[in-house]
Amino acid sequence: MKATRKPVKNICEFAENHVHELDSISFVCSIEDKKRLYGLLDKEIPDIYVTSSVPNLMEIGHKDAGKGKTLLWLLNELGISPEEAMAFGDADNDISMLTAVKYGIAMANGTENCKKAACFVTDTNENDGVVQGILKLGIYSLEK
């Protein structure tokens, strides 16, 4: 992370000075601050995408930057409907992807919000949860 990130002392000042250059901002904060900021940002700046991949990280980007919109774009390019697609996720930043398709599946080791958004929760990443999810839904059989 140190090789790709540059810490700044005042994130607000930095954002103001680089407003035309930034496409996203990620910052480490307490879980309590993250919850508070989610609500505040949603009210104050409606045209952004706010998510998190780990508990103490808040990620803010363009409103069209989420995994769900990206997945829908890709499916459209490939001629696949969301009803035919499956997505797996384990963090809050996967929620838009899981809700974009018919088969949005959360990993057992995923965040609570991710599991709530999914149509099904499979086993953990370490226990071949993706394969188990595919087989559980009967979409694919090893006997084919």
Automatic annotation (TrEMBL):
InterPro entries: HAD-like_sf, HAD_sf. GO terms for molecular function: magnesium ion binding; phosphatase activity. It comes from the Bacteria. One of its GO terms (cellular component) is cytosol. Pfam families: Hydrolase_3 (PF08282). SUPFAM superfamilies: HAD-like (SSF56784). PANTHER family: HAD SUPERFAMILY HYDROLASE-LIKE, TYPE 3, PHOSPHOSERINE PHOSPHATASE. This is Uncharacterized protein. The lineage of its organism: Bacteria, Bacillati, Bacillota, Clostridia, Lachnospirales.
